[in-house]
Amino acid sequence: MEYILTILVMISIFVILSASYNLVIGYGGLATVAHPIFYALGAYTTGLLSVHTDLWPPLCLLAGGLVAVVASVLLAASALRVSGDYLLIASLGFQLGLLQVIRNFEFTGGPGGLSGIPGTITGAARTPAYLLICGGLAVLTVAFVAWIVRGPYGRAITAMRDEELAFSTLGRNAMSMKIAIFAIGCGIAGISGGLYAYYFQYVSPEQFDVLQSAALLTMVVLGGMGTSMGPVVGAAILLAVPQAITFLELPPNIMAPMQGIIFTTLVLAFMFLRPAGLVGGAGRGKLPAALAGHGTEAP
Amino acid sequence: MTDPIVLLQILWTGTVTAASLVLLTVAFSLTQKVTGLWNFAQAGFMGVAFYTMLFVLNDLALPLWVALAAGAALTAGIAVFTEAFGLDTLRARRSGNLTFFIFTLISAELIIYVLTLLFGTEPQTLFPSIMSPIHIVGGVAISDWDLTAVGITVVMLTLLSLFLNRTKEGQFLVAVADNAKLAELYGISAQRAYRVTAIIAAIFITAAMYLVGARAGVTPNSPMELILSAVIGTLLGGMGRVFMGGLATVILALLQSYSVLVIASRWQNLLLYGFLFITILLFPRGMHLPRLRTRRAPAPEPSV
Amino acid sequence: MTEILRVEAMYKRFGGIVVADNIHLTIAAGEILGLIGPNGAGKTSLFNLISGVVRPDAGRIYLQGTPIDGQPLYRRARTGIARTWQNMLLFTTMSVLENLLIAPRAYPGESIFRLLLAPAGVRAAEEEARTRAMQILARMDLTSAANAMVTDLPFGHQKLIGLARTLMNDGALLLLDEPMAGVEGAAYETMQRVVREEAASGRAVCVVEHNVSFIKDLCTTAIFMANGKILESGSVEKLLGSKVLTDLYFGT
């Protein structure tokens, strides 16, 4: 029972992550793979604050989100000056570089990670309580993203993706809209990182590496980019499938790469056969807007 | 006061270490130049090259030249396969950059996972011993292996330069790199150019992995770090400037090597990333003034 | 007559081609200026320079007396410049109405802060935009198309929607890039009528067109461009009566 509840907590955290990632790449059309680093920034900020200070936990969470927002704005503002495509490389470099810094500082626990993060809720009701919090926030995130993309804001995002030049000529500032979407998505990821830190009480650099980027991509591509339930489906699959495989009782040195092979093959298969993902509408060949080439990009 | 001999030694050793990275940067940069793509699948190709050579040398106990040939052939095969069945499909669908990136990254990951399954995660070298005879020239230690590495690199770069500048096929590559649509109007096949580039890149990658794998332990995850050097070199050299990318890689390697005089060695790697940040923020178009930018989605042409 | 647009000594070169060579022009309120000339003359480039898509190498632009050279592309619409495009650039995954709703100058709903903190204001602005959009569609007899996808409309109607989109920005200057190309019949009549109405209400209009009868019917003044230079300007009769120009334009 405890085991299943823990899985559900993980799924909730991953739903928050993938929903916020979906906002950035699925709706915003911003090519980036560094989402895990903002997850990391939130996790480490929250972790360090709760280890070294007595700050009230929800404030630590918010601080994590804030750090993620500031970092994402700096990154996006510099990279988007060049072009939208440049954000991809810049974010990758940012992710790997920051991870290297984290690995080399004793302050952050070095490669061994940061442990001993105080548990804020203790006792037998711990996991159910966390499930309530994380699950609640997951629902909130999905609802929030769905709300943003309806109405005038969603209209503006779609127009920006459709024809950025026309969008800009109509008087909209495409750059600030992209930065705003990026910041919101990354801020939410930061908060989910804080949740992760509090629940597992341990964070280490490996959890935020390129592998995580691939996992997030898998969730969003499989579920369906640019849909509201896609990330939920993707998160559930990504976490449930390995659990199912564990029952096959393969030796660990086979299981880890095996999982990796299954996921990467799934992503590739979906990408070519059903790019709209499981939740997305049309079948073969119809690309969700985020995966299609842009019409025009304003100079 | 540092001994000038030490400085010279660092200069030599640093340059030699850079040799394999130069080859990788050239492969990556050339691909970026001609296809406009940041082809992260090359990380996977690096793994394929190394482990093929390892398998042929150790498990099949065949001579080195067979290993090299097999490595190059298999890597080129996979590279062209990726081109023909993956990238061409995405191009036909007019996919965006994110899709290409996902495809290349995930393909690299898939290959790495398969290699992990087949070969495990223990570091392995191509040869049981990594020692080679050393000569002292003017106080600087130069090993036979050093000379081989530098020799291979110089020869391959020269051949590439001759190919691009003096042969028709090479000129086609340059034309497609400049403007694929225009080249097609003149009867040059962009698709063919992409595949030729893939083959050239595969050969460079195989040579690079030979140099890397003969001297240090390689794991299935090593290519991810290697490709990062290739990316940084490409960025610093400037997009479209393949040989500048190679030069940038050498300079970077030297800076890293010399930095050991000033900072703790564990921060050396960080220097690389520091350069990446600085490049992205201050020199996104390369450290030298760019001539032409290769962009995938061209800015709207001024229709007069 | 109130001067709306003034362009002074505009110069722009792309590589080896000079697309704008010492261009001077003014457009007054109510004036419909026709820009004619052969392909490659620099007409669309001039639009690009005025609307801010491209930065000039030299020269100044004034909108209602205020210099706008420093303004980035997205600011110029807010200052009052609206333009159409040769290839329309309609938002293809949205409906007709949505294409119009994205076009007014004030758009509180597109700011996350206002969405969260002042939802009432957002709703009000949305209502107002919707009303105006329907009015414009009514003027073009296209009310029934409001909820159709733009890509489902016939070509002539798509061009009308492109025009409608610019009308949602009720700024002072209207730049129309080949609005009539490929349009005939009822849509042609509608477009003529609407453009005339706009000019009559005080806007300055500049039209790039190859369709000579459109120029004759609609424009009050005209400019003939070739190779980035203005060769002739003045009334439409004068330009179309000039033998030099008709030879250059229609060739022999």
What's the Cα radius of gyration of chain B?
20 Å
* Proportion in helices of chain A: 55-70%
Assembly category: heterotrimer
- The helix tally of chain A amounts to 11
The main pleated sheet of chain B reads as: 2 strands, antiparallel
Tell me about the largest β-sheet of chain A.
Answer: 2 strands, antiparallel
The overall strand count of chain B is 2
Unreliable spans of chain B: 288-304
What's the N-to-C terminus distance of chain B?
65 Å
N-to-C series of helices and strands of chain B: HHHHEEHHHHHHH
C-alpha Rg of chain A (nearest Å):
19 Å
Principal-axes geometry of chain B comes out as globular
Average pLDDT metric of chain B: 84
How confident is the prediction overall: mean pLDDT of chain A? 83
Q: Number of helical segments of chain B? A: 11
Structure characterization notes:
The complex is a heterotrimer of chains A (299), B (304) and C (252). Chain A is an all-alpha fold. In chain A, 70% of the residues lie in helices and 1% in strands. Chain A has a two-stranded antiparallel sheet. Chain B is built from eleven helices and two strands; from the N terminus they run ααααββααααααα. The longest helix of chain B is centred in the N-terminal third of the chain and has 32 residues. In chain C, helix 6 packs parallel to helix 7. Chain C has a domain of 158 residues: P-loop containing nucleotide triphosphate hydrolases (Rossmann fold), CATH 3.40.50. Chain C is of the alpha/beta class. Chains in contact: A-B, A-C, B-C.
What is shown here, in short?
Helices cover 70% and strands 1% of the residues of chain A. Chain A is mostly helical and 299 residues long. Mean pLDDT of chain A is 83; it is low at 282-286 and 294-299.
Defining key terms:
heterotrimer; B: 304 residues; mainly alpha; two-stranded antiparallel ribbon; 11 helices; 2 strands; 71% helix; 3% strand; disordered C terminus; C: 252 residues; alpha/beta; Rossmann fold; 10 helices; 10 strands; 25% strand
